[in-house]
Write a structure and sequence with these properties.
With 1236 residues, the chain is mainly β. The longest helix has 7 residues, at 760-766. Mean pLDDT is 93; it is low at 1-21.
């Protein structure tokens, strides 16, 4: 560090000694300039000042570069300027002595750090015009250079003025030359140690490259060089490498040589290498050889004892000049290996037969390959075939192969002597004897010959023979049929030809179940399964073999069903009428049926082919004759005995059908007789004029005049005459009109479907008497349609959709039809659905007939469906004003009203037939039909699930007369009153004929029927099953001065929550029950079957009471109170009571008379196993009491008070747990027992 000292000289003024004060001058900085500085170089400079009190000086400075600071007491600026502070800095220096201050600005120049930046480029021996210039940075920029130490390579010199090393580098100077250079700028001095490297001359040292081979993988060779910088970059200057080899700039040659590269070998090319300063080249070459391979693929075989055996192993590819062979493995004795010639040679010793695996290896120094070969030494050759299969005449495809061992295995065969059977040949190459043997070859059998075989080295012979048999044939062509369940079936298969020793089998298919084939005898036998016919016929192939030949034949066994006569009975014959009846059979072979009859009457014969019995029984032959019919199919024979009833002629029953039954005149109608019984005469009246129009059985009639026609058929036979009348059966229309709501237009003429009207109202307005209006299936929203008194036939047809009805949907806007003009039965509505009609106005007629109102008229309604219609009276139909409609074949569902859910008849008459009433309902009475002061005839109708307070199905009042026949009432309900099925109130007359009541319910009385308030009813041949009453009379109730007659009725499983499980006879009612049965009825208050009370009269004749039960209240079959009861010819059996007396009957007051009755096995846990009577006039005549039981007194009869008259009765095996096993009598006013 260079120090600069600035000396300040203070001038001290002379002061008078002791008389003057010292004068202090102002401070002044005397330093004028700061010396330059350099980065990272130590710096020091002291600033000086004068004046003031120097001893008190305090220095400070601002603007100093980083790294410099000023000493406060001395004013020295010192330190080392930091790197990056180069530049001009304004520095303000301040000095103070505490009172006085001086300040001065300086410019301080800081130079960058002086550095030698040069490096010396390498050189190489012999390089000319080498030049390297040294450079520096920083400092003042005015540099002075010097080479402080080191020796330059020979041929180079140093120029300090230009800082340059230059010249031509001499040979032999390779090496590193360390040199030290110094540079100064007068402020800084720096030194740099540098090395000048001189490289040796660059040379390629690789002179040869390894050879390759075709397809070689992973070939690799690296080029080398010497001299230069040692950092080399290689390239191919000219020529090319073998295909698929790559050349890397690092000098690496690598890759997989192409499989055909040898074709372009050798590959000559020039390589070049450079180190960035020098560049040299060298010519090189790669030779590619073909792949080395051993081309010998097999060794010639030898044989034991062979002399002069020789086999050379050959290779190709690679460098053949360098081939070196080796072998491993064991050679047959007598052979040796020569590696130089790659040859096996010598004489093969005996006993060396076998395979000798040998491994051969060859290498050319670059490639090595191996081949595994086998040397086979064959044994001595011999023919091993000792015999040949027999053949047969005409055999096709005979084949037998001769075999040999030893030798080379490649044989050639021939016949040395003798002959083969005709048409057979020997294949010399395969040793196969084959061909189709001549059809007569067996004549010269056997055929003896000598065969010879050679493999080209050895020869062998053998003597052989072929025997030819006659051809084997199955001679069976068919088998007998069998039948289901047949026992002992047997059939024998037969064959000819062959050796005669046969073995049989089923080649394909199946025998009938349970049959088996005996393989040794050919017999098919067994018991055929009972269902075998279901899979018949059984087709199968049988096969027979004799060990040499096999023959097959396709056979079949048909198994028939068991033959049986299926006719179980014969139609009756009638005296004087030709009789014909065909007896039928099933099973067996129907095409072979043969019929016969024995024991028959002389007038009866049978057709043997058809089984038809025929003949005419003479007058007086009535009765039953027995005879036997037999049928056979040749395999089975069955017979059956029949009884043929010969009747006197049955009464005729007339019936008929016709087609068509409507159309325009002239209308041809064909009539078909459907009558039954014995008919000998037919008389037809087609126009109801009372005259016979035809006596044919099935006539045709032409109608020419418009109108409705009633047709009558009267048939006559030996037993009388019967007549069938069908009213309004044929309509001959004047005109025919068409209505199609889907496609029509009221602007049309209505003369055809293409000209159809759109509305029914339009058609009714134009149609007249005896016109036919056909209405297509569609929906018609029309109301108040009116016939206006005209005799029109309105017929719905399925024109648009098969099976569909036209629908009149009133949309609750009114009713569909109104009849008020005296229409007759000739006004007809047929085959419509009428729904959603509604009449709920305040006054008639707006309250009646939701679908149809018949005010004054007698129309005919046929085959219509009424659904969801409503009115206050008559949800579907209302009749008044003396009307008398006919309703037939109609369905009423879900109609509703206040009264009369489907039909309300007031002061009129109605005929209803073949109709269905289902799920109709009312608020008050008559869920389906309501009759008020009217007559109703109802035939063959069904009432199901209709509901009302009373009369769930039907209600009649005010003297109505209702006749019902063959009707069915099911699940109808009286929800708050009486008569779940039918309710008759007041002086009505009710007749029920052959009606069925099942599962009807009444909350009060009469689960099925009630006759109330002086009504009259007659129920004939009716059935009551599972009906229920919430109070009395589970099936039928007569109440309050009514008169009821029940004939031929069946009452089963009916129940009453109160009394009378089947019948309630209440309050001054007269009940007559004849020929009825009561079974399984139950009451929960007394009278399991019948309850009779309050001065009523009950008469029962020819009735049976079985298994009825009263759970409380007594009287398992009957209970009466203050009434008169009589039973004649009745049976009471197994009736039961729980908790009260009278297993069969309990009577409290009144009269009880039993005559000719059977009272058997009735039970109670209280008194009176059969009868319990209190204060009763009891009369028992000619009756039997057997096996009745009670838990207390009176095993048969318990009688308390009243009187008892018993005459000619029988009591046996009755029991009581306390006194009175048969009778218990107490406090009687009168009692007589006679002839018991």
């Amino acid at each position: 560090m260079r120090k600069v000292s600035i000396v300040l000289f203070a001038l001290v003024a002379a002061v008078s000694w002791g008389c003057k004060k010292e004068k202090i001058r102002p401070i002044r900085i005397e330093t004028t300039v700061l010396p330059d500085a350099a980065e990272c170089t130590p710096y020091s400079c002291t600033v000086t000042a004068t004046g003031g009190k120097p001893a008190n000086y305090q220095w400070s400075a601002t603007g100093l570069p980083s790294g410099l600071d000023i000493e406060p007491s001395t004013g020295e600026i010192s330190g080392t300027p930091a790197s990056g502070t180069a530049g001009s800095h304004t520095v303000t220096v301040t000095v103070t002595d505490g009172k006085r201050t001086a300040q001065k600005d300086f410019t301080l120049l800081v130079y960058a750090q002086l550095q030698i930046t040069a490096t010396l480029p390498d050189g190489y021996e012999g390089q000319t015009a080498y030049s390297a210039v040294l450079t520096a940075t920083g400092g003042t920029g005015s540099y002075t250079w010097s080479l402080r130490s080191g020796t330059l390579p020979s041929g180079l010199s140093w120029d300090a003025a230009t800082a340059t090393i230059s010249g031509d580098i001499a040979a032999g100077t390779a090496g590193d030359y360390p040199l030290q250079f110094e540079v100064t700028d007068g402020v800084q001095t720096v030194v740099a140690n540098l090395t000048l490297t001189v490289h040796a001359e660059l040379q390629i040292t690789t002179t040869v490259l390894p050879d390759g081979c075709e397809g070689q993988t992973g070939y690799s060779a690296t080029l080398t060089a010497a001299g230069g910088t040692g950092s080399y970059s290689w390239s191919i200057a000219s020529g090319s490498l073998p295909p698929l080899l790559n050349f890397d700039s690092s000098g690496l040659i690598s890759g997989d040589i192409a499989s055909t590269a040898s074709s372009g070998s050798p590959y000559n090319f020039t390589v070049e290498v450079t180190d960035g300063q020098q560049k040299v080249q060298a010519n090189l070459s790669i030779t590619v050889y073909a792949q080395l391979q051993i081309t010998t693929t097999s060794l010639p075989s030898g044989y034991e004892g062979q002399g002069g055996y020789s086999a050379a192993i050959v290779a190709s590819g690679g460098n053949s000049a360098n081939y070196a062979w080796s072998m491993s493995g064991t050679l047959p004795s007598g052979l040796s290996w020569d590696a130089a010639t790659a040859t096996i040679s010598g004489d093969i010793a005996a006993g060396t037969a076998g395979d000798y695996p040998l491994r051969f290896e060859v290498t050319d120094g670059m490639q090595t390959v191996v081949a595994n070969l086998t040397l086979t030494v064959h044994a001595e050759m011999q023919i091993t075939t000792t015999s040949l299969p027999d053949g047969y005449d005409g055999e096709t495809g005979y084949s037998a192969t001769l075999t040999a061992t030893g030798g080379a295995g490649s044989y050639s065969w021939n016949i040395a002597s003798g002959n083969l059977p005709p048409n057979l040949i020997l294949d010399s190459s395969t040793g196969v004897i084959s061909g189709d043997i001549a059809s007569n070859a067996s004549a010269n059998s056997p055929y003896n010959f000598t065969v010879e075989v050679t493999d080209g080295q050895q020869t062998a012979q053998a003597n052989l023979s072929i025997t030819v048999w006659e051809e084997l044939q199955i001679t069976t062509t068919s088998l007998p049929d069998g039948y289901d369940g047949q026992t002992g079936y047997s059939a024998t298969l037969t064959a000819t030809g062959g050796t005669g020793s046969y073995s049989w089998s089923i080649a394909s298919g199946n025998l009938p179940p349970n049959l088996i084939l005996d393989s040794s005898t050919g017999v098919i036998s067994g018991d055929i399964a009972s269902t075998a016919s279901s899979s018949s016929p059984y087709n199968f192939t049988v096969e027979v073999t004799d060990g040499q030949q096999t023959a097959q034949a396709n056979l079949s066994i048909t198994v028939w069903q068991q033959l049986q006569i299926t006719t179980t009975s014969l139609d009756d014959a009638t005296e004087g009428f030709a009789y014909s009846y065909t007896v039928t059979a099933s099973g067996g072979n129907s095409s072979s049926y043969n019929w016969s009859v024995s024991g028959q009457p002389s007038w009866l014969s049978i057709d043997a082919a058809t089984g038809e019995l025929s003949g005419t029984p003479p007058t007086g032959s009535a009765g039953t004759c027995a005879f036997t019919v037999e049928v056979t199919d040749g395999v089975q024979t069955v017979s059956k005995q029949f009884d043929l009833a010969v009747n006197t002629p049955a009464p005729p029953k007339a019936d008929f059908e016709a087609n068509p039954i409507y159309g325009t005149a002239p209308l041809d109608v064909s009539f078909t007789d459907k009558s039954t019984g014995a008919v000998t005469q037919w008389e037809w009246d087609f126009d109801n004029d009372g005259k016979v129009d035809s006596t044919q059985q099935n006539p045709t009639w032409t109608y020419s005049t418009a109108g409705w026609y009633t047709v009558t058929l009267e048939v006559t036979g030996p037993r009388g005459t019967d007549t069938c009348v069908k009213k309004m059966y044929v309509l001959v229309a004047k005109n025919l009109y068409y209505v199609d709501g889907a496609n029509g237009d009221d602007g049309n003429g209505g003369t055809g479907w293409g000209d159809a009207f759109a509305t029914i109202g339009k058609a009714l307005s134009v149609a007249d008497d005896y016109d036919l209006v056909l209405v297509a299936d569609a929906t018609y929203n029309e109301t108040d349609l009116n016939f206006n008194g005209k005799k029109i036939y309105l017929k719905g047809v399925d024109h648009n959709t098969k099976g569909a009805q036209p629908v009149i949907d009133c949309q609750q806007a009114g009713r569909a039809f109104y009849f008020g003009s005296g229409e007759t039965e000739d006004s007809v509505i047929d085959n419509f659905t009428i729904k959603n009609g509604k009449e709920d106005g305040n006054a008639y007629p707006d309250t009646a007939g939701g679908a149809i109102l018949i005010d004054v008229g007698c129309p005919t309604l046929a085959n219509c469906t009424f659904n969801s219609n409503y009115a206050l009276e008559g949800g579907a139909i209302y009749c008044d004003g003396g009307s008398h409609p006919k309703i037939q074949g109609c369905v009423f569902t879900q109609n509703s009203a206040y009264t009369g859910g489907a039909i309300f008849v007031s002061n009129s008459a109605v005929d209803i037939s073949e109709c269905t009433f289902q799920s109709n309902s009312v608020s008050i009475d008559g869920g389906a039909v309501f009759c008020k002061a009217s007559n109703a005839t109802i035939n063959n109708c069904t009432f199901t699930d209709n509901k009302a307070d009373s009369g769930g199905g039907l209600r009649c009042e005010q003297g109505s007369v209702v006749n019902m026949s063959e009707c069915v009432f099911t699940q109808n309900k009286a929800t708050a009153g009486d008569g779940g099925g039918v309710s008759s109130l007041g002086t009505c007359t009710l007749t029920l004929q052959s009606c069925d009541f099942d599962s009807n319910r009444a909350d009060a009385k009469g689960g099925a029927v009630i006759i109330d308030s002086s009504g009259t009813a007659k129920l004939t041949d009716c059935t009551f099953t599972s009906n229920h009453a919430g109070h009395r009379g589970g099936a039928v109730t007569g109440w309050t001065y009514s008169n009821v007659t029940v004939i031929g009725g069946t009452f089963k499983d009916n129940t009453a929550q109160g009394r009378g499980g089947a019948i309630g006879c209440l309050t001054h009612t007269t009940f007559e029950i004849t020929n009825c049965s009561f079974d399984g009825n139950i009451s929960y208050g007394g009278g399991g079957a019948v309850y009779c009370t309050e001065s009523s009269d009950l008469t029962m004749t020819d009735c049976s009471f079985t298994s009825n039960k009263a759970n409380t209240g007594g009287g398992g079959a009957l209970r009466s109170y203050q009434s008169d009861v009589s039973a004649t010819d009745c049976t009471f059996q197994q009736n039961d009571v729980a908790g009260s007396g009278g297993g069969a009957m309990l009577c409290d007051g009144g009269n009880l008379t039993l005559e000719r009755c059977q009272v058997v096995d009735n039970r109670t846990d209280r008194e009176g196993g059969a009868l319990y009577c209190v204060d009763v006039v009891l009369t028992l005549k000619h009756s039997t009491f057997t096996s009745n039981r009670c838990g207390q007194k009176g095993g048969a009869v318990f009688c308390y008070q009243g009187s008892c008259q018993v005459q000619s009765c029988e009591f046996s095996d009755n029991q009581a747990n306390t006194p009175g096993g048969a009778f218990y009598l107490k406090d009687l006013t009168n009692g007589t027992v006679a002839s018991c």
